[in-house]
Amino acid sequence: MTSSRDAVQAVETEKTLRRLIDRGYRFVHPRDADGEVLAVVGVRAHGTVIDVVRLEAEDDVLAIRMPADEADILEPRTQLWRSTGEMCSVIDELLSLGDKEYAPGSADTRGCWVPGEAGRAKWLMASA
User: Fold this and answer.
1) Can you give the pLDDT of all 128 residues of the chain as single tens digits?
2) How many structural domains are present in the chain?
3) Is residue 120 assigned to a domain?
4) Which helix H or strand E contains 18, and what residues bound it?
5) Range of 27's domain?
6) How would you class 20 by CB atoms within 10 Å of its CB: exposed for 0-12, middle for 13-18, buried for 19 or more?
7) What's the rounded Cα separation, in Å, for the pair 53 and 19?
């Protein structure tokens, strides 16, 4: 049986995820070798930056803003901003960043997601 607290939490989680979707985030679900989902990862490329939010649980969320030319968005070498903690507060912080850009004109966000093994996907930057 679901408690009223669990129901409220589920509604808040859904509202928070809807805010990300409304802002243009796309989601991937990295899996382990057995196909188990490790996390829910939202990605939004805009301007000269990429924002990534990794949700492992409602109280275990990581959000990062990085330059759009970052080679590995799941483990970026350069982080322009980073926050961890509970989902609602981390997402609030992330969305409050707005659409600030990094070194205008230095990177290009053209590219696409390509499917990989075991349900994984990788972002490939366009070369031309």
Assistant:
1) 557 877 777 788 889 889 999 999 999 888 899 999 889 999 999 888 999 999 998 899 999 999 988 888 888 998 989 999 999 999 999 998 877 655 544 444 455 555 555 555 555 565 55
2) 1
3) no
4) helix 4-22
5) 4-98
6) buried
7) 12
Note whether residue 52 is domain-resident. yes
Judge whether 61 and 39 are in contact, CB under 8 Å.
no
Residue 115 in any domain: the answer is no
Full DSSP string of 72-104 = -TTS-S--SEEEEE-HHHHHHHHHHTTT--SST
25 lies in some domain: yes
Per the CB < 8 A criterion, the answer to whether 90 and 83 are in contact is yes
